[in-house]
Write a sequence for this structure.
């Protein structure tokens, strides 16, 4: 990870423990990481930092969408918006939730057409990627993209929850779809703030490509990516 620098526009604010209730609440959510450069920028506006801390805590830890799908969408937003800080901090989280180097490469490659080649992302990941991509680039998501995501979310509900009525399946599908929209919208907010305020001096840095990537060229000329 590149060394974090100072924002070109503002100094970070790191209140000592016990001097700021909002700072202490952020420390509690962050755990061992403590106040990050993003938090230190937000603490220039403490009431907003407090609301941000609550919102991001809910989006990151209280949702029902699988961590791999959530982080895939967050990382796609970061890649499209050029938010290197966001990518650097979420790539390890994505890996913890099972995203492979090959999958991360597809997420990062915003110039490649969608859908990607079959066999690397599963169907739910593929539709979530298309949804995050369309929402971030164009705001308005084509009906076909939304319908494809909802169909895969419905299949996931049926797989994970047996014995539901059709109405219950629809309700859970609706809930997951709303959560997907909130994840993408929230991290568009995050990425735009990171870049505009130059948090940790990363606004001029390129979004990195996945690390530890080993390319194995196949006889067909295509490439496989293995961890």
């Amino acid at each position: 990870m590149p060394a974090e620098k100072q924002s070109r526009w503002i100094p970070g604010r790191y209140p000592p423990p016990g001097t700021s209730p909002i700072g202490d609440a952020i420390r509690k959510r962050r755990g061992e990481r403590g106040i990050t450069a993003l938090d230190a920028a937000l603490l220039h506006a403490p009431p907003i930092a407090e609301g941000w801390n609550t919102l991001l805590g809910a989006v990151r830890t209280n949702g029902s969408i699988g961590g791999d799908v959530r982080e895939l969408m967050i990382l796609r937003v970061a890649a499209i918006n050029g938010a290197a800080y966001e990518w650097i901090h979420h790539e390890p989280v994505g890996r913890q939730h099972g995203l492979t180097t090959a999958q991360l490469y597809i997420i990062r490659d915003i110039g490649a057409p969608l859908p990607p080649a079959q066999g690397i992302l599963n169907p739910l990941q593929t539709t979530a990627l298309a949804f995050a991509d369309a929402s971030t680039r164009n705001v308005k998501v084509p009906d076909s993209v939304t319908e494809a995501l909802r169909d895969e979310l419905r299949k996931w509900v049926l797989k994970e929850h047996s014995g539901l009525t059709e109405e219950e399946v629809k309700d859970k599908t609706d809930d997951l779809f709303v959560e997907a929209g909130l994840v993408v919208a929230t991290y568009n907010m995050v990425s735009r703030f990171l870049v505009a305020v130059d948090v940790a001096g990363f606004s001029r840095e390129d979004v990195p490509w996945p690390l530890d990537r080993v390319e194995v060229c196949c006889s067909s000329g295509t490439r496989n990516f293995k961890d």
Remarks:
- Residues 213-227 have pLDDT under 50 and may be disordered.
- The two ends are 18 Å apart (CA to CA).
- Strands lie at 214-217, 223-226.
